[in-house]
Design a protein that fits this description.
- The protein is of the alpha/beta class.
- The protein folds into 2 domains: 3-188, NAD(P)-binding Rossmann-like Domain (Rossmann fold, 3-Layer(aba) Sandwich), CATH 3.40.50; 197-285, N-(1-d-carboxylethyl)-l-norvaline Dehydrogenase, domain 2 (Orthogonal Bundle).
- Helix content is 51%, strand content 14%.
- It has 15 helices and 8 strands.
- Strands 3-2-1-4-5-6-7-8 form an 8-stranded mixed β-sheet, with helices on both faces.
- α6 links the parallel β5 (119-122) and β6.
- α1 crosses α2.
- It is globular and about 60 Å long.
């Protein structure tokens, strides 16, 4: 199979990442897309979010006409029926919650319902591709395609090889990423967090530790890293912006299993923040930590 053979695609999950991936497959790739979720309400919310984003970022700025926006959305079909949605697709991207048991269940269904030639991929940011592939009858056609949030702006896609992923599958996944205007990098799934997140996580944790020690405010910590290393955003504000702390929180047990308790354990700030009902470090600092 070659990239030219990919005509029709599917995205499993209409949430934050799923609807963005479906949009870029249609808007930039020109692909027909089936966007699948477990109920009609989730599918409807996915389309609502997508249309609002297209209006705000493209139509209102003169980058798309109303007619072009309609064409983009019309190429995407919503569904709650996985069997029907996958019956004639060439490339499937799973973008469900970061739970390995759930992803394995989804991959079983993808394998059973997609044509034999179809490539099955996961947008996971850290889960093991080989383990997902193990529940399918086509492990050579399973690969990671990790898009970064926000999908429209971030140029990186990590193409992640499982133990039995074929060179052809990697080539097609890289070709798709390039067709969508992205820059693919290839790595193996033996690296927890793959490339970007593995390297970035220690910096984010160290920024949290400096905040914990009251060395500086989150604004000044981020400012130092932005100006010192020419970053567009500091780690604290970036993780607040993309909801990255929620991924840290949800993945603690996986991280401890893969990296050991010292590296994998959640920072105390994040535990306190979650228990207090906060999702953003900046808000938690302003309302709570700065007053201690």
């Amino acid at each position: 199979m070659k990239i030219e053979d990919v005509k029709k695609t599917a995205v499993i999950g209409a949430g934050m990442m799923g609807n963005q991936i479906a949009e870029i497959l249609s808007r930039v790739g020109g692909y027909e897309v089936n966007m699948v979720d477990i109920n009609d309400e989730l599918v409807r919310k996915g389309f609502q979010t997508m249309e609002s984003r297209l209006e705000k970022l493209f139509v209102s700025k003169g980058k798309l006409t109303v007619e072009e926006k309609k064409s983009i959305v019309d190429r995407i079909k919503g569904s709650t029926n996985t069997e029907k949605a996958l019956k004639d697709v060439d490339f499937v991207i799973e973008a469900a919650t970061e739970r390995l048991d759930l992803k394995k269940e989804i991959f079983k269904g993808m394998d059973e319902n997609a044509p034999a030639h179809a490539i099955l991929t996961s947008n996971t940011s850290y889960q093991n591709i080989s383990e997902m592939a193990s529940v399918t009858k086509r492990p050579e056609k399973v690969v990671g395609t990790h898009f970064f949030n926000p999908v429209g702006a971030m140029r990186l896609v990590e193409v992640v090889r499982g133990a039995r992923t074929s060179d052809e599958t990697v080539e097609v996944a890289c070709g798709l990423a390039s067709k969508l205007g992205k820059e693919p990098v290839v790595c193996r799934d033996t690296s927890y967090g793959f490339l970007a997140n593995r390297a970035y996580t220690p910096m984010a944790n160290e920024a949290l530790q400096m905040l914990w020690e009251r060395i500086a405010s989150p604004e000044d910590i981020d400012k130092a890293l932005k100006l010192g290393y020419n970053l567009p955003m500091g780690p604290l504000e970036l993780m607040d912006f993309v909801g990255g702390w929620l991924v840290f929180i949800a993945s603690e047990q996986d991280a401890m299993r893969e990296l050991g308790p010292e590296k994998g354990r959640l920072h105390p700030i994040l535990k306190m923040m979650t228990r207090a009902g906060y999702a953003k470090v900046y808000d938690f600092w302003k309302d709570v930590l700065s007053k201690w």
